[in-house]
Structures are given as C-alpha cells and as structure tokens.
Design goal:
Layout: H1 2-11, H2 14-23, H3 38-50, E1 54-59, H4 67-87, E2 91-95, H5 106-122, E3 127-129, H6 137-147, E4 154-159, H7 165-171, E5 177-180, H8 195-211, E6 216-219, H9 223-235, E7 243-248, H10 253-261, E8 266-272, H11 277-286, H12 288-299
Parallel strand pairs: 1-2, 1-8, 2-3, 3-4, 4-5, 5-6, 6-7, 7-8
Helix pairs in contact: 1-11, 4-5, 7-8, 8-9, 11-12
Cofactor: FAD
InterPro entries: FAD-linked_oxidoreductase-like, PRODH_bac_arc, Proline_DH_dom, Proline_oxidase
EC number: 1.5.5.2
C-alpha cells in the first residue's frame, strides 16, 4: 500500500509530468506505450490485429484547463478515428472527458464529444469514456446519459472499489461497460481499501452486468478473476459474444494470446502520446511487479 500511494502521489506531480514530455518515452515507458503519434499507434494496432487481438487506442492526456487545448484534443480524437477507418484496423477509441474540457465548461466538453461521436458513428467505431477520479464520476455519468440520447456507440467504465458500483451498474443496464478494479487513490468514505474486498466486489459487478444481458468488458490481468468469469459464463449460458477481456499494451502478452486463441475477444488498450507520465505512474502503482517490469525496460 505504501508503494502504491507513493506512485499515485508521483502521478499528480505537475513538474515531473512536464519533464516527462521532454524526456520522451524513457524510464521504461516504451514497454507499455508504443509511441507518441497516431501513426505509431496504428502500427502497434496492426501488429496486434495480426495476432488475433482487438484494440482500443487512447491519446493520453487529462485535466486540461485551457479551451484551445480541449478543442485541439477533440480534433486529435477525430483524426485518430479517421486513421482507424482509413487503415481498416479492428480498433475502438478510448478518451477522458477532462482532456476534452470537462473542468472548463460542460457545454464545451459535450460539444467536443458530439463531434467525436458523430465521426465515430459514421465509421461504425465504438467510443469508450474512461472513468477518472471520484470527483468526476457524477459529471461523467450525467454527460454519458445525455450523449446516449443521440448516440448508441458510446459507453463508459465502472470501478469496483467504489461502494456505489453495483448501484451504478443497475442504472446502466444495457450500456456497454468496461469493468475495472480502480486505479486512483480514493477516500475510505467512498471506496473500499482492502484488496480482497475489491476483488470480491469486482466479481460481483461483472456477474451483475452479465446477468443483466449487457455487453461487458472485463479489464483485468488477474488470471484468477479471468478463470472465474469464464466458468461463470459457461454455467449461465452467457455467449462469448456478450463479453470481452481487456488488458493493457505490453502486460502479460502470453496470457493475452492464450485468451484470444481460446476464442474469446481479447482487446488491448493501446495508449499513445507524449502526455504519458500520469498513466505510467498509475500502472506502477497498481502492481509491485510492474516496477520491476519497468526497470527491465529502462536497463534495455
């Protein structure tokens, strides 16, 4: 827990984040972030598709407080969608609302999302709104509800460590959701702190969403969780077309391939861009093994 809190603290350090943009993909980040351009992301996606793996790409960035930067980020998302369509890859788009101006002006963020979703709909591409910290949860779900009145090609993420997760799952019946354990440092007032309790709640909300008949993306590198989901799906006659597994680019690649070979949809989350620092620090915070993984990459 001490190590996790340390890396979560570092993830919010603005000075280090600014320096990371100048350093480039060093400190082992190249192992988990394939590049900084749309072209580098598409190259990575093509390679993964050739192995039978689906993808979602995310142009890294969050907590934008400048209107011009938010509009520029939205334009970059549109350009990424056009690149996905042009290359014909099997790929979705993931994004964060704070990168699109949620903390500046809700209407600005909504208009940016409409532009993105209209382009995605034209090309039959699904867009996933990543969930951020607890302070943005209600705003994210409110905007999702508004957008879904116009577009069906959009879903979001629910984090299992939040006490309210099961209630949100029920409210979002029929919506495609990515379910995760949770990667931010949250208060004991709103979130479980014990790993075993988080794991238990994670399995609970996965089963809940599946039994609701809703499309479910299980984002986990935990082989025990994955095995239990497979067994639950078989026991309840839930078809493989109703769910998928998701993992991060660069992590547990052998398991990714094994899952795809078994006939399940295995989707890889492919982040790219020069604003990689916060994402990378949160990955190091999630599992102590990731620190050793990054150090091996740095030594290379």
């Amino acid at each position: 827990m001490v190590l996790r809190n340390f890396f979560l603290f570092l993830s919010k350090n603005k000075t280090l984040n600014k320096g990371a943009k100048k350093w480039g993909l060093k400190l082992g980040a190249k192992q988990v972030i394939p590049g900084v351009t749309i072209e580098s992301a598409m190259d990575a996606v093509k390679q993964l598709n050739s192995q039978g793996l689906a993808c979602t790409v995310d142009h890294l960035g969050e907590f934008v407080f400048n209107r011009e930067e938010a509009i520029e980020a939205a334009d970059y998302c549109v350009r990424t969608l056009e690149a996905i369509a042009e290359t014909g890859v099997n790929c979705n788009l993931s994004l964060k609302l704070t990168q699109l101006g949620l903390d500046i002006d809700r209407n600005l963020c909504r208009d940016n999302m409409r532009s993105i979703l209209a382009t995605a709909q034209k090309h039959n591409i699904f867009v996933r709104i990543d969930m951020e910290d607890y302070s943005h949860l209600d705003a994210t779900l409110d905007l999702l509800a508004e957008l879904r009145r116009e577009y069906s090609n959009v879903g979001t993420v629910i984090q299992a460590y939040l006490y309210r997760a099961a209630r949100d799952i029920e409210d979002l019946k029929g919506v495609s959701l990515r379910l995760v354990k949770g990667a931010y440092k949250e208060s004991p007032e709103v979130a479980l702190q014990d790993k075993a309790e988080i794991d238990e709640n994670y399995l609970k909300i996965i089963k809940q969403h599946l039994l609701n008949g809703s499309y479910t993306a299980i984002a986990s590198h935990d082989h025990n969780i994955i095995a239990k989901v497979k067994q639950f799906a078989k026991e309840n006659d839930i078809p493989k077309t109703q769910f998928e597994f998701q993992m991060l680019y660069g992590f547990r690649t052998d398991m990714q391939q094994d899952i795809a070979n078994e006939g399940y949809t295995m989707r890889i989350y492919v982040p790219f861009g020069n604003d990689w620092y916060g994402y990378f620090m949160r990955r190091l915070a999630e599992r102590p093994q990731n620190v050793a993984f990054a150090l091996r990459g740095l030594l290379k």
